[in-house]
Amino acid sequence: MFRYQVDFGSGERNVVSLLDPEWVYEHGLGPEAVIAVLRGGAEADVVSPADVQENGPFLRVLSRAIFEHADRCDLLRREAEIQGSGYVYLLDGRTPTPGGRVPPEDIIGVFEARDGALVAGSYQHNPRHRLFTNAGWFRLPAEIEDALQARLRSVTW
Predict the structure, then answer these.
(1) What's the rounded Cα separation, in Å, for the pair 132 and 118?
(2) What is the average per-residue pLDDT within 17-26?
(3) pTM across the whole model
(4) What does 16-62 look like in DSSP terms, one character per residue?
(5) Which helix (H) or strand (E) holds 76?
């Protein structure tokens, strides 16, 4: 995660993005690439969940990347094979209890599984998922993170 100061016209605000400074310097930082806006006065190294205002345009890009690329995710495919039929949950990689009780804010979304495979188009985002909790920023499986990064870098601002 990278932190930037951006002027929205009403003064500078601290924002967080997945895009690295070199790329942002060359191409800019559009609204879809801003994960969250940080509350004014939040300490540089100490951020609490109350300091983080999630950004709707980023959430839509995130959901789209998951929706379009889940079939490439080995973890989800294996879970669907094990499940057979039912539901497969995409868990946030930061969750401390992936094999036990997972807090709702660490469940990114759910897919339907049928006959050991993910059902195309079945992804549903969990509105209770949070991009930042006391356990830190969200973490995605590598295949989905790569797709998200590619999508963010393909948009021109």
Answers:
(1) 27
(2) 94
(3) 0.90
(4) EESS-HHHHHHH---GGGEEEEEPTT--SS---GGGEEE-HHHHHHH
(5) helix 74-83
